[in-house]
Amino acid sequence: MLDDKQVKQSEVRAGTASTVRVLFPDLHGAARGKDVPVAEFDRIAEHGICFCSAVMGTDLRHNPVVGAAEGFPDMRAVPDVQTLLPLPWEPGVSACIADLVRVGDDRPEPTDPRGAVRQAVAEFEELGYAPVVGPELEFYLCREDPLDPAKVTRYVDRLSMVYTVGPQADPDGTVRTLTEMLSQLGMETFAVNHEFGNSQYEINLRETTALKAADRAFMLKSAVKDVAVQKGLVATFMGKPFNDQGGSGFHVHISLGREGRNAFADPEDPDGISEPMRHFLAGVIVHAPALMALLNPTVNAYRRIVPDSLAPTHANWGWDNRTAMVRIPPERGKATRLEVRVGDASANPYLTIAAILFAGLHGIRESLPVPAPVKGDVGAVPEDQRGAPLARSLEASLDALEHDEVFRDIIEPELIDTFLALKRFEVQRHQAWVSDWEVEEYLHHL
């Protein structure tokens, strides 16, 4: 009898695919990979395919920040055949997400973001829990400016389009069609709408196991960008691409399953939530400064962390409060969960989910006490009742991550060290770059 892996491979051979796209996320969350002819896929599925491991320490301007000291060695991407999916927008192509391993000893590659999620899930399973995650991602759709290819114009540039659907909000049907395609693939994309910003959209993914949720968010981002290109558009998950519009967030809903029930629910509790949920929440609040670096990993991300923007500015939580960093939605029973609202859409889905899980894991292991909730608009609450201020720059967040000893001990050290080196180099480049704002502000007057 064929096992699941063999069934998946036989489906590829029997189907219409001529190419399998083997993908993995780098530390930025960008999709990297190679296209493999379908006739070669069985061998690749068994042995993997090599890449230079320095790609995990290369910045978005193509500078290899980490890897030279080791001589730029290889790593192998081993396809997880369970993730095989045909791509309706590219007939003849199927995609498969890979796990990364070291060449020679087959140890998991320490900088593999997908491996971080696996590690977090395994540690929760040791305690008898199964994390359940629902990602929410926002993005902008744009067109290249024909007068200046370096700039873009917005796909739909009209105010007050939030929750508008149909041709007014999506004239070419790009977002609707993409959502339908992803749903047909079993990605469980259950809703789509125009968001608050001009040409800003959100596609909702149903909650599922943590690794599958991270895979879906990763594939969603890749699919949105690929389909946009095919339509002559540009999709961006950059947190704050426009000065006159709101930012794009990455909200994460999380609960824990245990013995077939929601371990965050407690019908005997006056608030309907369990002690493990309170401890998990406390861990997220305690480690919020370090989480900021992984959930807001770009210089630009901090442009959206401003008061009165629905982007949290303090480490706090509240009951059904969208101005708080962590919101407890009103549903109870099987739907009991928390929503971490501070993430930037540019964040790596794997690192985002893994980081939140590790923070919550520490809270549960140490039975950390949860602080009092904030009530009403956090911006109107006295400063001493808002919780600790969140970092307002990538540099400050990186410092917090580096000095959070508990958090660094939980996550693979090489991953954190590589991430820190990569992002500190990004900060240095930004600090040395003369911006358009500076030229417009000073050149003619000073």
Explain this structure:
It is a single chain. The protein is of the alpha+beta class and 446 residues long. It folds into two domains: 4-109, Ubiquitin-like (UB roll), CATH 3.10.20; 119-433, Glutamine synthetase/guanido kinase, catalytic domain (Creatine Kinase, Chain A, domain 2, 2-Layer Sandwich), CATH 3.30.590. It is 32% helix and 24% strand. The chain contains twelve helices and 19 strands. Strands 7, 8, 9, 10, 11, 12, 13, 14, 16, 17 and 18 form an eleven-stranded mixed sheet that branches. A hairpin with a 2-residue loop joins strand 13 and strand 14 (261-262). The longest helix has 21 residues, at 210-230. The protein is globular, with a radius of gyration of 22 Å. The model has no long low-confidence stretch (mean pLDDT 92).
Topology:
Elements: H1 4-14, E1 19-25, E2 31-37, H2 41-47, E3 49-52, E4 74-79, E5 85-86, E6 93-102, H3 113-126, E7 130-145, E8 148-154, H4 174-184, E9 189-194, E10 200-205, E11 208-209, H5 210-230, E12 234-236, E13 249-258, E14 261-262, H6 275-286, H7 288-295, E15 314-315, E16 317-319, E17 326-328, E18 338-344, H8 349-365, E19 388-389, H9 394-403, H10 405-410, H11 413-432, H12 436-442
